[in-house]
Each structure stands twice: as structure tokens, then as C-alpha cells.
Amino acid sequence: MKTTPEHDQKIAKMTFASVYPHYIAKVERKGRSQAELDQVIEWLTGFGEKEKQALIEKKATFEVFFERAQLNPNAHLIKGVICGYRVEELETPLTQKVRYLDMLVDELAKGKKMEKILREE
Questions:
Q1: What range defines the domain where residue 80 resides?
Q2: How many domains does the chain have?
Q3: Which of 49, 87, 91, 107 lies at 20 to 30 Å from 2 by C-alpha?
Q4: Is the model more confident about 102 or about 121?
Q5: For residue 40, which of 121, 110, 115 has the smallest C-alpha distance?
């Protein structure tokens, strides 16, 4: 699935620090915790609390965020539609990784079991 170069550039330049509070608010509004959100982020990226916090403080863009991430080998199992895009069909790797994260946050907010979110089943 193609995205426009402008769309991809916009995502690349967005900072993780600007989006993370929205992720927290979204999952907490649905009765999930920040700790669960952080677990999901760590599963996808390999970032523990210290690394994640350092990236927030440095106002790292998503481009830098995912350059430094060790993407989970099971990330390719993340499938579905988010923001009008089927994540498994996105052609731009960075956009796909950001949408993987969006998809996991959505699944958490929708009350999916953690085992399913972390692709353990």
C-alpha cells in the first residue's frame, strides 16, 4: 500500500515525545495502564525504561527512534487497518513501523489480552 512522500516525511519528523502522552491518555481512558503501554513498546522496540526516557528527553524523531530500535522478530505478525492503512501492506519501512506501534496501542486500548498483543499465542 502506497503512502505519499509527504505523509512518510511527516511521520519521520514527528517526535516520539509528542505522541507518547497521547498513547498514555488513550490506554488509560480505556482502563489500561502506562506500565502495560511500556511493556508493549518494549516488546516492539527493545527499549527499556531508561532508553525510552532518554529518547523522550532528546525529543527523538520517529526516524531516530526506529533507527535505534531492535524491532521484535514477530513484528511482521502485526496485521490490520490503522489510520486507513493496512499495516502489513505499507511499503515504506519507517511508516510501517510507526503504524505497528499505533496498532499495538489500539489493541491495548481495545482490551485485547496482553498475550495476543505480544503475539505469544
A1: 5-117
A2: 1
A3: 107
A4: 102
A5: 115
